[in-house]
């Protein structure tokens, strides 16, 4: 629902310039309620260009809060949008120090009551946590959406010590983002010189990220899990199960020492009042209660809510996308980890998953390099984009599977599945992928959660070691947190594979993984119902009136899989054209598109190839600019081969190009 009437009229200041101590000018948009009284301010800092990149979501959210008495400042971080400086990398200490300076500046304004909040989704959620750990005095509370406290183990780069292909897609996206010109309507004639400076400084961040394939000081910086106790302000953590960052919510609830609340719904990588799948909630109303409590000193009742409000997915068959809503219902826990959760142990036997160990035959699997195709994308974006996991029967056929008998009653699971495995491998470098599926009476297999581990990282992400070939060794693997009710008559299936393409980059050789029946266990987090579940209620989703927009060209999303039977090459082609639109209130026209092509042969992991391309064009004032980037990744047995190319055009004329090819040694990845 779009709200059009608010308690306060809203004044918009754009640009609001903030000059830092080193002389760098930072560009911001400020939405401020018109009132004689002093108000708090909530800060969001991301590099995605406030006037033409995130403007649609910004206008949905920030004016709504300002209309209810909470000022909001949307900041272009150093080197992005209309701000001076260089965006050298993500989540740098310089970015965090800039944020502390900006917070102090805004807190000292005559209209501010001295209390500041920080919020954001994805990048903005990351730096809200990172800045909170620096404890600037005016920062009293944050809301982090779709973020992480662990940059190495739970971000877009590596998972379980294995390389995520999403890293190269992300680096290519950032190549373009860094290369776009500032808005001449804001910075004036300086825009061209600023653009030239940015283009000269722009290179692929993948060169840096691939140089750090194990958990080192590079990843520890900005990972607040290194010391959760450093965060003393109040934290609300929010995410959705269809997003890849949902693990951070239960982790923060477990480890933060200060005031905290967590909400995990059915959503993908989007705010809970916009995007899909639903059901959406009145997220802004919850945020307002939070800000009024912590920034205004009002008793809004927000801290009387259950500590952990969570969506439990119900019975629904796997689909490439879910519109409009997921099946399920809300549940509540007042403590996390919850003492109410039963840790039910099942044994992996030749006959399936049972409560007793049955020693017996050795079980083995050698998954083809194409295994994983139907498991969706690491970073699914919801809506009509067909990147969710589909029926897992094909995947189950390439894995070592263990099933329960059909359930006598409905079974609700909430938390993380934990595996304790005794395995033997025939290669020193092996990736393990474990999937937990809800198997319907007709055989349909729905992915509930999964986890992966580079077995060289079985003991340490800091100091990996080769697997002992031919000698059994023990592995512990924690799958992603989830919540789902498995209906009576269904079976639960654990599927173990040693490939997970295209989510994970494959190890150099196919491998055989073996285990003895009865030597391995799985712990299921079984949740009984709670009277508190009925206490979870949200108001309907609301936003402010959208930014006036004219759609000039419609967009589309596609995912096409092909296989050349002659060569054995299987190709997955993802393409998203975001169309062309004009933001009428600021006379800016934007268009963009991306494509990701991943190919591999079933019998040859070294045939893996990723080609990712992104194009973004913006016309504003005197500037009509476009940037296109292409990144390609292949590998041989010892090295990754990374190549990238960036081209920038003004009114169709090439004005800048840069490229590089790097060979980066594989470090157990």
List the SSEs and their pairings.
Elements: E1 10-19, E2 25-33, E3 39-46, H1 55-67, E4 71-76, H2 93-107, E5 112-121, H3 123-132, E6 139-145, E7 158-159, E8 162-163, H4 166-178, H5 184-187, H6 191-201, H7 206-209, H8 217-220, E9 234-240, H9 248-255, E10 260-265, H10 283-296, E11 308-313, E12 328-333, E13 342-349, E14 352-354, E15 362-365, H11 393-396, E16 400-403, E17 411-415, E18 418-425, E19 431-439, E20 445-454, E21 473-478, E22 482-486, E23 491-497, E24 513-516, E25 521-526, E26 549-553, E27 556-563, E28 569-583, E29 588-601, E30 604-620, E31 623-635, E32 639-650, E33 653-665
Parallel strand pairs: 3-4, 3-5, 5-6, 6-9, 9-10, 10-11
Antiparallel strand pairs: 1-2, 2-4, 7-8, 11-12, 13-14, 13-25, 15-24, 16-23, 17-22, 18-21, 18-24, 18-25, 19-20, 19-23, 26-28, 27-28, 28-29, 29-30, 30-31, 31-32, 32-33
